[in-house]
């Protein structure tokens, strides 16, 4: 069930430019939300397989310009300049996306202790009161992307599982910004003017997250002290110039890594030693002149994107280990097209550890 939630959240994380979230589809796909809603009623027979059984008794008290049903408040696309008043206390999902709200005040969500998901995307929010999310122990989804925030909101609920701050004006991640957030599955910080100097030492201390995205920013190097819990890391569309051996030493659970569309010219030997579980690496659209060292030691690596670089030579042992049994999973994709390498000079044994001949993309992909 946790895997299903993560998949749902990752789908929502790739919505750029702004694309409205379909709240009803979100509810149908989010089984954990269904489970949490059902926990409030211990006296029923457990038959809660349809949202039609949830309470609709607050519909007549719905705030102006909003629609209320099944403990869901929908107020998107209404030109609202502030959060509606008198939101029913048993609301579990609030949709306020695509309005003109400029500020989240202290009492805007007061008393909404059952709130599970809050969508505030595509407003003009520049200020969030430090106590705006107090007593929201059940809040799991908080999306604040496409706003005017200049800093990460204070006192975020510790139980949040998806936090999206994509496309704001945040340039600084202070120490302890995500302190105690051990349930965080998805943290989206892309399209903010974040430079390495803006990430304070200890910024990611005392937190755990599976998916972190700081793409389309101003990074010139891989940030230090990233959460060791990471399984997926996106640093694409930055200005990173090289990879060093210490960059990923703590990320032993990392499985997927995006570094495409940077300015990487050099990968230090031993860079991927600390990522024994890595399965997918994106290093395409960089300035590499050779295949990164150490790929042949990665037992589970299956997908390697290196196209659109300046690679002119591929060695016979660049991808595959000398001992066949050392490789636990075969490559399903190696892309080398749009490089100056003469593919007809590559020795046949070079790709001895691929799943099929179609796994390798060379030349210009013409048939």
Question: Can you describe what's shown?
Answer:
- The protein has three helices and 18 strands.
- The longest helix has 11 residues, at 2-12.
- It has two domains: 1-239, Ribonuclease Inhibitor (Leucine-rich repeat, LRR (right-handed beta-alpha superhelix)); 247-367, Leucine-rich repeat, LRR (right-handed beta-alpha superhelix).
- The protein has a 14-stranded mixed sheet with strand order 1-2-3-5-7-8-9-10-11-13-15-16-17-18, with helices on one face. Strands 4-6 form a two-stranded parallel ribbon. Strands 12-14 form a two-stranded parallel sheet.
- With 367 residues, the chain is mainly beta.
- A hairpin with a 2-residue loop joins strand 1 and strand 2.
- The protein is elongated, with a radius of gyration of 23 Å.
Summarize the structure.
7% of the residues lie in helices and 14% in strands. It is mainly beta.
Kindly state the number of beta strands: 18
Protein structure class: mainly beta
Distance between the amino and carboxyl termini: 43 Å
| Uncertain residue segments | 1-15, 39-58
Shape: elongated
- The CATH C-level name of the largest domain is Alpha Beta
| Relative strand content | 5-15%
Superfamily at the CATH H level of the largest domain? Ribonuclease Inhibitor
CATH topology of the largest domain: Leucine-rich repeat, LRR (right-handed beta-alpha superhelix)
**Strand order of the biggest β-sheet:** 1-2-3-5-7-8-9-10-11-13-15-16-17-18
N to C succession of SSEs:
HHHEEEEEEEEEEEEEEEEEE
Quaternary form: single chain
The CATH level-2 architecture of the largest domain is identified as Alpha-Beta Horseshoe
Number of helical stretches of at least 4 residues: 3
| Mean pLDDT over all positions | 88
Counted up, domains total: 2
How much helix is in the residues? under 10%
**Cα-based radius of gyration, to the nearest Å:** 23 Å
Largest sheet report: 14 strands, mixed
